[in-house]
Amino acid sequence: MSSFTVIDYIIFVVYVLGTAFIGAAFGKNQKSTKDYFLGGRSIPWWAIGLSVMATQASAITFIGAPGWGYDGGLTRIITFINVPLAMAFLIATIVPFFYKTEVYTAYEYLERRFDVKTRTLTAGLFLIARGLATGVVLYAPALVLSVITGIDVNIMIILMAVIAVSYTVLGGISAVIWTDVIQMVVLWIGAGLSVFIIFQDVPGGWGEVMSTASQTGMLESIDFSTDLSVEYSIWAGVIGGFFLHAAYFGTDQSQIQRVLTSKSIRESKLSLVLSGVLLIPQMLLFLLIGVLLYIFYQYAGDPNINNLNELFPRFVVNELPVGISGLIIAGVFAAAMSSLDSALNSLSAVSVRDFYSKFMKKNQSEEHYLKASRYATVFWGIYATIFAFFAGNLGPVIEAVNQIGSYFYGALLGVFILAIFIKRVNGTGAFAGVIAGMLAVWAVNVFAEISWLYNNLVGAVVAVAAGYAVSLLSKAPPKEKLEGLTIDRTKKDVQETLQDRAEAAASVEEVEEEKKTKRWPIYLVLYFFVVFAFLMYLQNL
Predict the structure, then answer these.
(1) Residue pLDDT, tens place only, 299-344
(2) Is the dihedral of CA 450, 455, 461, 462 positive or negative?
């Protein structure tokens, strides 16, 4: 039985309406698709970084991670330990290409480097996979919120969809990013308050918590097993997880679109540094809540829940003070909308840029494409809502939502590696590489027992190998498909850009700051080793 009070409902409603109003306000001055999809390339790096984190901390993570912590301690942090390494790779390679070529979608770059069919295939895969995941992301938190608040699950689905669609349609990517910033703050406040209050209720405080957690193995996260079937071994997390996050943050339009909204390449990189540093502590915080709840219920008795996703929300409404419950449940709602709004905007961008303006309505006015973009956002919102109504029948798909991308992310990363690093590869090879990469992932899932984290490694390696092999059987790509689009030109192009800025009276300080970004990947790699050492320290307590 829910103990959600009138005050909690008031706080919840005020937050929801406030978020919608703020998001809608960003649409007043939008006159082009550049404003709608890229925010006029004027959004500060720190807001972009927080927005990336808000989407990563989806409602499924917010309500699911404490359940993971309750059931398995810190084990699943291994999935995220690779994030600094992935961000270091993206900063040094892929991100400069996207920003320099001034593309709206990641898949536009693939047409410039390869051909139309490669762009269309990869963009289509994104629409299919992200559209599917969006319905799941909408359903899962709606179900939990329904159980907690007493509101019918279908009404909750519609409520979440209408609000997210409304401010995304009106405000575009600017609304997505700035509402994500607000939602990130609410989410952190809710998690922080929960940790503080649980500590107050556990006899013995911090000492008792650490002692119990250590004795029960809840602080163990590093498994050095070389068995490929071990789902969360250190090797699966570092190697397989690296490929997962490099692909997710570097080739998924819902993520890369944020990077393209920044004022400069330097700020694009800085936003990824922020995410690379804070994502691990954020996940540790969520898992720690689960560990604390495990210890709390050793004293308070059986939590009496149907599934682990209900664990944290049930604790919130039954154990926390009036008002705080409303704020934290608003945080769950916020996390759901932060995933939904970014997906809707990126789905709209790919629909309009990679399909509508390419094949249906060419050479139309910016006003026409802006209107089409808003209609596309509404379409994908309706699609996600309809799919969410049926998602309850999918069972295992809900549990495997984080694994959906592993069937195609590796192949997508592989084709971008081919594009940037291997000049001999042509469009036919790239197209074949994507297909081969996905088939390889399917094959290892059917015929081999390995951790799903390795799927992305398999997909990327096979895509690169097959793409290169097929390309050798046909003509090399023409010169115009290589100039400024492969890695050997990056340094020269960046230097030329900086020289042009200097000649245009750009400040010397700006040029020097741009050069300093070369060190950032090294700092992130060092940060990875610091995190690894900290986890080893916890494990040996």
Answers:
(1) 877 887 777 777 888 888 787 788 888 877 777 777 677 778 888 8
(2) positive
In angstroms, rounded to a whole number, what is the distance separating the alpha carbons of residues 174 and 38? 8
Task: Read off the tokens for 447.
Answer: 């015929």
Provide the token pair at 434: 């994507």
8 Å CB contact between 84 and 272: no
Cα–Cα distance measured from residue 16 to residue 13, given in angstroms and rounded to the nearest whole number: 5
End-to-end CA distance of the chain: 39
Q: What are phi and psi of 477, to 5 degrees?
A: -65, 145
Give the span between the Cα atoms of 161 and 129, in whole angstroms. Answer: 19
- Give the DSSP letter string of 418-447: HHHH-TT--HHHHHHHHHHHHHHHHHHHHH
CA distance 418 to 429: 9
* Cβ pair 439, 227 in contact under 8 A: no
Structure token digits, residue 341:
């709004």
For residues 20 and 166, what is the distance between their CA atoms, to the nearest angstrom?
7
Task: Say if CB 48 and CB 362 are below 8 A apart.
Answer: no
Using an 8 Å Cβ cutoff, are 135 and 383 in contact?
Answer: yes
The model's confidence at residue 403, banded by pLDDT at 50, 70 and 90, is: low
**Pick from 245, 252, 235: which is nearest to 347 by CA?**
252
State pTM to two decimals.
Answer: 0.86
**Is 337:165 a contact under the CB 8 Å cutoff?**
no
Helix (H, G, I), strand (E, B) or coil at 473: coil
Radius of gyration of the chain (CA): 23
Distance CA 113, CA 426 (A): 8
**409-421 and 116-149 are packed helices; what angle lies between their axes, rounded to 10 degrees?**
140
Number of H helices, E strands in the chain: 24, 0
String of DSSP letters for 69-133? HHHHTTGGGGGTTTHHHHHHHHHHTHHHHHHHHT-SSHHHHHHHHT-HHHHHHHHHHHHHHHHHH
